[in-house]
Design a protein that fits this description.
Helix content is 30%, strand content 18%. The chain contains 7 helices and 8 strands; from the N terminus they run βαβββαβαβααβαβα. The radius of gyration is 17 Å and the shape is globular. 45% of the residues are buried.
């Protein structure tokens, strides 16, 4: 929570979703606290971040002592029932994080946004489509509509077509009222710009911004 957040002065909030190799980054939370937002970062694989985990160095996390949801295997769990797949749990955790922030009287529940980086962008796009309470969403690099592209995620969906149907369907955005800003750069090897553009053109209230030479990483995406 920002220091100024009170019941009489509620602040906006944001849910932060990491990408591959990431975790719940405390410096990412602080980045938004310094801008007046309440913030929550989650580890989508149920792990616990080490004290030295940061946006620049990576995850540095260890396993929870209790049972948690499935790990990210790059859709190799696509033969399992939907509710046993990693992305199902990651999206659910993102939606629950909205509810959690909303429970604090210091937070304006009508002004809770969402951003995700890389895999987190895939998760954020899906979560915004399923949960219209988010005031805004900013997927960085990752989104949907990657099936058939020549990027790394295009190859992943070609290898796992069931996951493509479940988690990469751009039609989920057609009735999504959430304002969305899709962020990418034209040299990204994972998520191709033509798919990002398709997402921006399909969602009801969306724009795309390309940042030249952005590079692909947690620190770059968060910044």
């Amino acid at each position: 929570m920002p220091a100024a957040a009170t019941k009489d002065n509620p602040v906006p909030g944001i849910v932060l979703v990491h990408g591959g190799g990431g975790t719940a980054f405390s410096d990412w939370v602080k980045m938004w606290n310094d801008r007046g937002y309440a913030a929550i970062a989650i580890d989508t694989e149920g792990r616990i971040p080490n004290t030295n985990a940061n946006l620049n160095s990576g995850g540095n996390s260890f396993e929870s002592i209790k049972h948690h949801g499935p790990s990210n295997t790059g859709y190799r769990d696509d033969a399992k029932p939907v509710n046993q797949q990693y992305l199902y749990h990651a999206i659910a955790a993102t939606i629950i994080s909205n509810s959690f922030l909303s429970s604090f009287e210091q937070v304006d529940a009508s002004k809770i946004g969402l951003t995700g980086i890389s895999w987190g962008g895939v998760i954020a796009t899906n979560a915004a489509a399923y949960d219209d309470r988010f005031a805004f969403a900013v997927p960085v690099y990752g989104a949907v509509a990657m099936t058939g592209t020549d990027g790394i995620f295009g190859d992943i969906y070609e290898a796992h077509p069931k996951s493509s149907i479940l988690w990469d369907n751009v039609e989920m955005l057609r009735n999504c009222r959430t304002p969305i800003l899709f962020v990418n750069w034209d040299g990204d090897p994972f998520f191709k710009v033509d798919a990002t553009e398709k997402c921006a053109n399909t969602a009801m209230n969306a724009r795309m911004v390309l940042i030249p030479e952005l590079q692909h990483g947690h620190l770059q995406g968060a910044t």
